[in-house]
Amino acid sequence: MNTLCRSLSVTACLLLVNAFQLTGTALAQPDANLFDRVDRNKDGKLTREELPEQIRRFFDQMDLDKNGSISREEDAKIRQRLQQRRNQNPAQQQPRLPEGTVAHRNIPYVENGGPRQQLDVYVPAKAEGKLPLVVWIHGGGWQNGSKERTQALYLLEHGYVVASINYRLTDVASFPAQIHDCKAAIRFLKQQADQYHIDASRVGVWGSSAGGHLVALVGTSGDAAELEGELGPLDQNSLVQAVCDYYGPTDFTQMDAQAKGKGSIRHDNPNSPEAKLLGGPVQEKKDVAKAASPITYVTKNDPPFLIVHGDEDPLVPVGQSEILQQKLVEAGVDSTLHVVKGGKHGPFNSPEQHEAVRKFFDRVLKAERE
To answer: Which structural domain, as residue segments, surrounds residue 56?
Structure first.
């Protein structure tokens, strides 16, 4: 969050809302139920003590009328200002591209699909021949987020084509729509490999939070026909050769048990992001939860994984990555779990962490070709 705060040149209140979006806490969401969850005494206002610990220090900047509490109206006003700023400055949402990058934006990957079924492809300057592809899948609790924000663009300077995809959110469709879209996008990119300088036999996926869940599921379900769906080019496969999972859920039924009452989300509640994804409370939708959990599909044929998770993550317990790592290792899969000491819910975008991700993709996607 501190990195994000330093990177934005906006008013304090808009900065705070961006910080909430990063941590996934209540004020990031336009859902009154989430406001109610933080409003512990149910008086329709938020005090400093009710706010998540990591954002209490910004309380004075959010308390617009300086009366010692944040009302629903203040919350709505701040979110409205943020949305207005985004609408007026859409380019500010997109990280800077390396000079000479060829950007192909808003490409439909499903014929006659919806507005969320689009992707962007970035090809390095003066690309020659076929290059490995890394596909970024965004987070946002399956109910927010956009392809316009990706951590993967720096890979363009290291010989990769980068794609970033949108997928249907939970206000439109519940699971398995999200994984169907991700797999359709991967098949589309393989079909169009010649146009975008892509080597379809060298594809990696990388995502954070909800995106981490989806990339992990893409990685483990390569042989699960029931998750392929019928969207996009069906003459291609959705297999990938490398997965970088940043703090994604891996077994929905265990999330609350692993959190042990800590954190800012009760995952089993009927209004949780997981419930919206599954179409109902997790413990009442165990069959769907199992179908949506990456650990369900782990086999020895899965591609190599790099998993990164903070040991103080308040949203997705680090145990989610630990159980995936255990399953992968037991199956004989090449997998590394890096636990960030003191780490929260990302974003883990320091130069050192980016270098570790690059080296992982280089080792898996390039080693045999160089």
So the answer is: 2-91
What stretches of the chain show up as alpha helix (H) in DSSP? 2-7, 12-23, 32-38, 59-62, 72-88, 177-191, 210-220, 255-259, 273-278, 286-292, 319-330, 351-361
Same domain, 317 and 298: yes
Tens digit of pLDDT for each residue in 334-367? 999 999 999 999 999 999 999 999 999 999 999 8
* Radius of gyration for the alpha carbons in the chain, expressed in angstroms and rounded: 20
Give backbone dihedrals phi and psi of 258, rounded to 5 degrees, phi first.
Answer: -70, -30
The pLDDT of residue 53: 61
Strand partners, 39: none
Q: What total number of domains does the chain contain?
A: 2
Tell me the three state secondary structure of residue 134: strand
Residue 337 phi, psi dihedral angles, 5° rounding: -110, 120
Burial class (CB in 10 A: 0-12, 13-18, 19+), 137: buried
Q: Are 102 and 123 spatial neighbours (Cβ–Cβ below 8 Å)? A: yes
* Same domain assignment for residues 266 and 365: yes
Residue with token string 């994604």: 248
282 neighbors 313 (Cβ within 8 angstroms): no
